[in-house]
Amino acid sequence: MASPKKEGFLTEEQREMLKIATQNAEVLSSSPRSPSKMVLPELHIKGGGGGGGRATAVGVRHIRRSHSGKLVRVKKDGAGGKGTWGKLLDTNPVSRIDRNDPNYDSGEEPYELVGATVTNPIDDYKKSAATIIEEYFTTGDVELAATELRDLGSDEYHHLFVKKLVSMAMDRHDKEKEMTSVLLSALYADVISSGQISQGFFMLLESIDDLALDILDAVDVLALFIARAVVDEILPPAFLKKAMRTLSESSTGLQVIQTAEKSYLSAPHHAELVERRWGGTTHITVEEVKRKMTELLREYNEHGDTVEACRCIRELGVSFFHHEVVKRALILAMEIQTSEHLILKLLREASEECLISPSQMTRGFSRLAESLDDLSLDIPTAKSLFQTIVPKAISDGWLDPSFLKSKVSDEEHRDEGYEKLRKYKEEAVIIIHEYFLSDDIPELIRSLEDLAAPEYNPIFIKKLITLAMDRKHREKEMASVLLSALSMELFSGDDIVNGFIMLLESAEDTTLDILDASDELALFLARAVIDDVLAPLNLEEISNKLPCICSGSETVRIARSLVSARHSGERLLRCWGGGTGWAVEDAKDKIIKLLEEYDSGGDVGEACQCIRDLGMPFFNHEVVKKAIVMAMEKKKDRLLELLQECFGEGLITINQMTKGLSRVRDGLDDLALDIPDAEQKFLLYVEHARRHGWLLASF
C-alpha cells in the first residue's frame, strides 16, 4: 500500500486539517464577539527525521491575531521555548482568560446570545386582516378597507385575506355576505390580483370540511360565494373546471363546485338570482353606487323633492355606505353655494327619518374634513364653507356635537391615551373572535390580563355583546356565559353596569344595522340578572343614568318585564338554546352535590377530580364560598381539609381562594340570619387560611 504523499513534516491529510484550523482561527479573531477558543481535533505532528516521533497537539486557542493583523503564536503557561506552540500535550479543554495578562484582549471574552422574539409574517398578516375585516363589517367603508389592506404592504399574502374575508362572512348574516361580495369586487385588480382571488377561493375549497364543523350550510354558502364571484367577473368560469381537476375525488370541495354549477350558474336568469340572493344591493359596484348617489343629489338640487330623494337613497340599499351620501351632498353644497339650503334640508330630513344614522352622518363629515386640503384646490373657500356648515348642523340637531371634540389635530391623534384605546379595541375584537372559535374562557381571561387595561373593561363588554348580537344563538349564549365568568374573575360590578350603559346609549345606531337589537339587548340584560352578573337594582341604576330621550330606557323596561315573568329563570337560561357551556345555576348545583358527597364520607381525591371535571377554573371561588358556608352550617372542619388539598395541588389558586372568602365576607349579614355566630366562625376560618397561605396579603 502506497504511503501518503508528504510535504515537509505533514501528510496531505494533516495539512488539510491545519488549513481548516487556521481559517477558523482567522474568522474567530476577526469578530469582536468571537469566543475565546474553538476546540478542534488535534493535529499529530511527527518529530525529528521521520522516525517514530512524538505527537504534538496543535491547539487553535494558541493562534491569535495581533494588532497589526498578523497571525502570531502565543506562548501559554510557560511551557515550551521561545517561538514554540506551548506544551507538547495541551489537552486542557478549558481556556481561562486573565484580565491582568499584558496580552489580554477584550475581544476574546465569551459572548452571550440574546434571545429575540421571532415573529411569523403570515400570523401578523392574518391578525391585521381580521382587524380590517371586522372594522369593515362595522363601518361598511370600502375605501378605508382598501386603503388599510394596501398599507399592509404584503401583496403576496392577499390570497389569505380573500380566504379570511369569505370564511368570516360565511358564519354571519346576509348583510355581511353581501358586503363581502361588494368588497371583493371593489378590491379586484386594483388591490388584489385575479390570481390571488382564485387562490383564496381554492384554499376555501380545500378547507371546506373544517368550515362545515362550525357552519352547517357551509357547502351551499361557499357555492353561492363562488357563483357570485363568477357573475361579478372576479373569478373566471374556467376556475370551476380547474378546481375539479385539482381536488381529490373524496374532497367535499367537489360538492361545492357541483352545487355552484347546477344550483346557481345553470339556472335561468342565474345572474339576477345570485345577485339578489342575499337581498343586498343587487350588486352594483362601488363606483356605480357613487355615480347613482351623485345623480340623485343633482336631480334633487334641480327639483327640490326631499321625499323622492330620501326614497332613492333608501332604494340604494347601502345603509353601511350612507356616509358617502353625506360627503357628496356637502361637496355639492360647496360647489353650488345656492344649493346649500336644499342640501342641509335633505340631510336634516334623512336624519329625522333615521334614514342616515348619527354614526354615518358623523363619519361623512369626518371624511370630508380629512379631504379639505385636496378639496381646497378645486374649491378655494371649502374650509370656510365647511366651518359654517358644521355649527348649523349641530344647532339643528342632526350632527352629534361630539364631532367638534373628535376633530383633533394629528398631534393629538398620536397621543398615548388615544393610541392605547385604539390598540385595545383592535386586540379586544381579535380576542372575542378567538373565543367564539375556541370557547376557551381561561385563555380569554389570560389574554385580557396580558392587555393590562382594566379601565377599558366596559368597552370590552360593549364590544362582546355588540359582536354577539349580530351572530347566531351559539355566540350569544357564549357571550352570556363569558360575562358570568368575567364578573366573578376579572370585572367589577361597575364595569358591567358601565358596559351596559354604553350599549344602551348607542342602541339607536345599533338598531340600524341589527333590526332586533333592542330585543336582543333586553335579553342580555335580563340574562345578566338571572346569572347574578347584575343585581335587580342595577337595572334601575342603569335606567337613571341614561339620557331622557334615549331609547335604551324602553330596553331596560323590557328587561324588567322579562325578569319578573313567571318561570323567568329557566326560560332566560335557555333563551339561546343553552349554547356550548353550562348555565351558572347548573354549575352551582354540581358544586353543592360534590361538597355534600365529600362531607358525608367521600374520598378527597374523588372530590378534587369532580372539581377538575367541572372545567371552570375561573369559577372555583364558588367552591371556596360554598365549602366555607357549609362548614359554618354543619360545624365541621372536614371541608377545610378539602380546600387545603385543592390549594396544595394548585387546583384552586390563591386568587380564587381570596375571592371566595371575600364573597363569604360580603354576605355575612345575610348568613347571620341563619347562622348567628357566622361572623365569629368566619374570623376563625380567615385565621386558618392565613396560616396556610391561602390568602393574598391585600385581603
Key traits:
about 700 residues, disordered N terminus, mainly alpha, Serine Threonine Protein Phosphatase 5, Tetratricopeptide repeat, about 0% strand, globular, two-stranded antiparallel sheet, 37 helices, about 65% helix
Can you walk me through this structure?
The protein has 37 helices and four strands. The chain has 699 residues and is mostly helical. It folds into four domains: 121-276, Serine Threonine Protein Phosphatase 5, Tetratricopeptide repeat (Alpha Horseshoe), CATH 1.25.40; 286-412, Alpha Horseshoe (Serine Threonine Protein Phosphatase 5, Tetratricopeptide repeat); 423-573, Serine Threonine Protein Phosphatase 5, Tetratricopeptide repeat (Alpha Horseshoe); 584-692, Alpha Horseshoe (Serine Threonine Protein Phosphatase 5, Tetratricopeptide repeat), CATH 1.25.40. The strands form two sheets. Strands 1-2 form a two-stranded antiparallel ribbon. Helix 4 (158-170) runs antiparallel to helix 5 and helix 12 (286-303) packs across helix 14. It starts with 5 loop residues before the first strand and ends in an 8-residue tail after the last helix. Keywords: Cytoplasm, Nucleus, Repeat, Translation regulation. It comes from Musa acuminata subsp. malaccensis (Wild banana).
What is the structure about, briefly put?
With 699 residues, the chain is an all-alpha fold. It has 37 helices and 4 strands.
Percent helix: 55-70%
Strand order of the largest sheet: 1-2
Unreliable residue runs: 1-8, 27-62, 65-72, 87-91, 408-414, 579-583
What structural category arises from helix and sheet content?
Answer: mainly alpha
CATH classification class of the largest domain = Mainly Alpha
